[in-house]
Amino acid sequence: MAGSKLSRRERIKKGIRKRLTGSSERPRLSVYRSNKGIYAQVIDDVTGKTLVSASSSSKDFSASGTKIEQSKAVGKVIAEKAKAAGINQVVFDRNGYLYHGRVKSLADGAREAGLDF
After folding, report:
1. Residue 95 and residue 31: Cα distance in Å, rounded?
2. d(CA 77, CA 95)
3. Given phi > 0 = left and psi -120 to 50 = alpha, else beta, which region is 28?
4. What pTM value is reported for the model?
5. 68-107 pLDDT tens trace
6. pLDDT tens-place string over residues 46-73
7. Which residues contact 96 (CB under 8 A, 6 or more apart)?
8. What is the rounded distance in angstroms from the CA atom of residue 80 to the CA atom of residue 98?
9. Could you say which of 28, 39, 72, 113 is the most buried, measured as most Cβ atoms within 10 Å of its Cβ?
10. Alpha-carbon dihedral sign for residues 113, 46, 13, 31
11. If 0-12 CB within 10 Å is exposed, 13-18 middle and 19+ buried, where does residue 83 land?
12. Pairing label, strands 28-33, 38-44
């Protein structure tokens, strides 16, 4: 029963999504990381709409440094955008990734900028 890393992450992701849903009062902060960048979205699952998004590959993003430093900066950007949209509380969806490294640093950056989860 050997599976790939991707299939393992998909299985974990399904388990997480069974328990987490984002509402209009408390939307879901979803994280995706690739080898080159990190992406975050605040999603209202009731309407199926993305309310706010930020990524390390967007044109208005200018932070350089290590991937962990970039992740923290993306966390701060997503928190500032969410606060501007009137969102103070979110549910954190790690999307099957371990809560470690870049995912943890994004969460820490969002918390520092005032997002509650």
Report:
1. 6
2. 19
3. beta
4. 0.89
5. 999 999 999 999 999 999 999 999 999 999 999 999 999 9
6. 999 999 999 999 988 887 889 999 999 9
7. 9, 10, 11, 12, 13, 16
8. 24
9. 72
10. negative
11. middle
12. antiparallel
Choosing among 3.60.20.30, 3.40.190.10, 3.40.309.10, 3.30.420.100, the CATH entry for 5-112 is 3.30.420.100
3-state DSSP assignment of residue 79: helix
The tokens describing 76, both together, are 């701060």
Residue type (1 letter), 19: R
Q: Please state, in angstroms and as integers, the Cα–Cα distance from residue 79 to each residue in 7, 9, 22, 37, 74, following that order.
A: 30, 26, 16, 18, 9
